[in-house]
Automatic annotation (TrEMBL), chain A:
PANTHER family to which the protein is assigned, alphabetical: ABC TRANSPORTER ATP-BINDING PROTEIN, HIGH-AFFINITY BRANCHED-CHAIN AMINO ACID TRANSPORT SYSTEM PERMEASE
Pfam families: BPD_transp_2
Location (main, coarse): membrane
Record's keyword terms, sorted: Cell membrane, Membrane, Transmembrane, Transmembrane helix
GO cellular component, one term: plasma membrane
Location of this chain's protein in the cell: Cell membrane
Membrane topology: Multi-pass membrane protein
Entry's Gene Ontology molecular function annotations: branched-chain amino acid transmembrane transporter activity
Presence of the UniProt keyword Membrane in the record: yes
Superkingdom in the source lineage: Bacteria
InterPro entries on file: ABC_transp_permease, LivM-like
Protein's name according to its UniProt entry: Branched-chain amino acid ABC transporter permease
Automatic annotation (TrEMBL), chain B:
UniProt keyword annotations, A-Z: Amino-acid transport, Cell membrane, Membrane, Transmembrane, Transmembrane helix, Transport
Keyword ATP-binding: no
Location in the cell: Cell membrane
Protein's name according to its UniProt entry: Branched-chain amino acid ABC transporter permease
Gene Ontology CC entries for this record: plasma membrane
Length: 351, 354
């Protein structure tokens, strides 16, 4: 049963299994284990990013294509929900319509981009996605009548998902309100999407993708239509990213270019995939958990470090919390060189 | 056409019998190789038809050409590096930023020279800034090649990831060294203002930029077509292993090209910074978008294609920004899509011997 649920892709390392189990339990009971607005918020973000990173891994790790438009797809889902909620009024139907419309738009965009670039050479894809993603981000912040411009959109989600909705008193000291329901909506949807991705990569389709990653010429010679497979993978990945974006929008009840379309999110995704381990879905879990926790709590530590070196010439500058990205970049380059299989790869090796 | 002349030559003795008849290629076939070159005037004419007043069209055309020349300067290194070693450098934009910051700092140091109303002093200050920027980015390019690019030869996926990481690190280092604020810079005194020609105001600086770009393109073409090193580079682009088999160390040539390309990106950065009169650490990342579009539509590895692509992008950007400001970047994407539909490998595809 469990093996079937994981699509036969077991962690294959006792330590990895233990870590994944711990993460699953922690996320499943996060509101009870770590009460507090901030920690529950972190847990929800982790859920969403696991899906987002896993969908990116389908592209980067399994198919061997680099895309820089993943935040664009993420943003399409988020803006879909926001625009539907603004124009259709609050309600679950608006959420559903927005999510599906966002995912469909993302898939269509992915299809068109893939058609134009993958047909010729896979390397075009990275450049074209970068260009299209930045054009879309600029457009979104310019078309302020539709998208709210730089300010973004704040919208109402169904009352059942807001803290104002109560359906009981307290359970283990946690208020039973709509926020809790919202968290579990995010958690369960993320879990389902993750298992779906796991299913996809372990299907015959996923095997072909891996073959293409290893040697596209040979895969073509054996008789698989490489372009069709790559395009399909791109579309699936885009649609799942849009679903993650929709969940994110429901959770933070706001969309804006900085929150859902910025290039920083793209870098985070890249880093999570690489550190967790390219080419394994579990890498996405580990990478997202590590990075987000580090981002939320380590930045403060860096601030402390900067304070400690007050007076030394450049050190405080280098350690200030704003230079977070610098260290991420260095970490990123180093892990691509010395750690290409990521944490999951290492754990499986050391078995 | 050679065979056409042959036909007119008087028959000599018994060789009359052998006279192969070749039909002249049709007009479209003969025009095909020149089509990309014709696109630039075509776009300019289209712009003239779309823009109501001729004087604003002239202003826009000059600024479009200036922008295109600057993009060409920045993009040429990237396309050659790809052609030569199959290395795609996503960190190229970092050189643009670094060049701009070094050059502008130099100009700020030499403020008394740039503010003086003498053309000579101004040009000297500019020259100093450009040299400083090119030396800095050239050295940085060398280090970048050594540290970041060398370990990942032959692996496109890793190249993209690693050079992207390098871009982030360099950008952040710029912020550490120069601070997070954007820097405003005035152009040297003699390059401010505009000249009026046929009722259109043409900024002096843009004319200078067009001049520098054109000179660089011609120089680059001469080096590539007329010198030994240019021959090796072109041969390397077409068939690297063969050039190596003939005893040339292609790796050294490649490092040279990488350094030269980085230095050109630095030069482009200074020019771009003075064009915008504003520099930020992530300017390189923004220009990278245009550079990529140019390199793709030109055909990866082709300098001529890169030049035409840059002019097209520059003109398109300026015309559309005048007609419908919000569509400027999107129009360039549309241009890229249109050209890829026409020629999927780019306008002037580089034929690789494989």
């Amino acid at each position: 049963m469990l093996v079937k649920l994981l699509s036969g892709d077991s962690p294959r390392s006792p330590l990895l299994a233990l870590i994944l189990l711990a993460i699953l339990i922690a996320l499943a009971f996060a509101p009870f284990l770590f009460p507090g607005i901030r920690s529950v918020d972190t847990a929800a973000r982790i859920c969403i990013f696991i899906v987002l990173v896993a969908s990116y891994d389908l592209l980067l790790g399994y198919t061997g294509i680099v895309s820089f438009a993943h935040t664009m797809f993420f943003g399409m889902g988020a803006y879909g929900v926001a625009l539907a909620s603004v124009h259709m009024g609050r309600g679950f139907d608006a959420l559903a319509v927005g999510t599906l419309a966002g995912a469909a738009l993302a898939a269509v965009f992915a299809f068109l981009i893939a058609l134009f670039s993958l047909r010729v050479r896979a390397i075009f894809f990275a450049m074209i996605t970068l260009a299209v993603a930045s054009a879309v981000a600029v457009l979104v912040s310019q078309l302020s009548q539709i998208t709210g411009g730089e300010d973004g959109l704040t919208f109402l989600i169904p009352r059942e998902l807001t803290p104002a909705f109560r359906f009981g008193d307290e359970l283990f000291g946690v208020r039973l309100n709509g926020k809790l329901l919202n968290y579990y909506l995010v958690f369960l949807a993320s879990l389902a999407l993750f298992l779906l991705l796991l299913r996809i990569v372990n299907s015959p389709f996923g095997r072909v993708l891996q073959a293409i990653r290893e040697n596209d010429f040979r895969a073509e010679s054996i008789g698989y239509r490489v372009v069709a497979y790559r395009t399909t993978a791109t579309c699936i990945s885009a649609a799942v990213a849009a679903f993650a974006g929709a969940l994110y929008a429901v959770w933070i009840r706001y969309v804006g270019p900085d929150a859902v379309l910025s290039f920083d999110i793209m870098l985070d995704i890249l880093l999570m995939v690489v550190i967790g381990g390219m080419g394994t879905m579990y890498g996405a879990v580990i990478g997202a958990v590590l990075l987000l926790i580090a981002q939320n709590y380590l930045q403060e530590l860096m601030g402390l470090g900067a304070g400690a070196f007050e007076g030394v010439p450049i050190l405080p500058e280098l350690l200030s919390a704003d230079r977070w990205l610098l260290w991420l970049g260095i970490l990123f380059v180093l892990s691509v060189y010395f750690f290409p299989t990521g944490i999951v790869g290492r754990l499986r090796q050391g078995r | 056409m050679a065979h056409a002349e042959q036909r007119e030559a008087p028959p000599a003795g018994d060789e009359v019998a052998h006279r192969p008849t070749m039909t002249r290629a049709g007009l479209t076939d003969r025009l095909a190789p020149w089509m990309p070159f014709l696109l630039v005037p075509v776009l300019a004419v289209l712009g003239w038809l779309a823009i109501p007043s001729t004087s604003s069209w002239l202003t826009l055309t000059v600024s479009g050409l200036a922008m295109g020349m600057m993009i060409f300067i920045m993009a040429s290194g990237l396309t050659l590096v790809f052609g030569l070693m199959d290395v795609i450098n996503f960190g190229h934009g970092a050189f643009v930023s670094v060049g701009a910051f070094v050059g502008v700092s130099m100009l700020l140091v030499l403020a008394n020279m740039t503010e003086a109303p003498s053309l000579m002093l101004n040009l000297l200050a500019m020259l100093a800034a450009v040299i400083a920027a090119m030396v800095a980015t050239g050295a940085l390019g060398w280090a970048f090649e050594r540290v970041i690019v060398k370990p990942v030869y032959g692996a496109h996926l890793k190249q993209i990831l690693v050079t992207m990481g390098g871009l982030i690190v360099i950008e952040q280092l710029i912020v550490v060294l120069w601070g997070p604020e954007e820097i405003y810079i005035l152009r040297p005194e003699a390059l401010q203002g505009a000249v009026t020609f046929a009722g259109a105001a043409l900024e002096k600086y843009r004319l200078v930029a067009v001049g520098i770009g054109l000179a660089l393109f011609i120089a680059m073409r001469l080096v590539l077509r007329r010198t030994k090193i240019g021959l090796i580079v072109r041969a390397g682009v077409e068939n690297g292993p063969m050039v190596e088999a003939m005893g040339y160390r292609l790796r050294r040539v490649f490092i040279g090209v990488f350094i030269a390309g980085s230095a050109l990106a630095g030069l482009g950065g200074v020019m771009w910074g003075l064009y915008q009169e504003l520099i930020t650490a992530h300017m390189g990342q923004e220009i990278m978008i245009l550079i990529f579009i140019v390199v793709i539509i030109g055909g990866l590895g082709s300098v001529e294609g890169c030049f035409i692509g840059a002019l097209l992008v520059g003109l398109m950007q300026n015309y559309v920004a005048f007609l419908e400001p919000k569509a400027a970047l999107v129009s360039n994407i549309a241009l890229m899509v249109a050209i890829l539909m026409w020629r999927p490998q780019g306008m002037i595809p580089v034929v690789k011997a494989k």
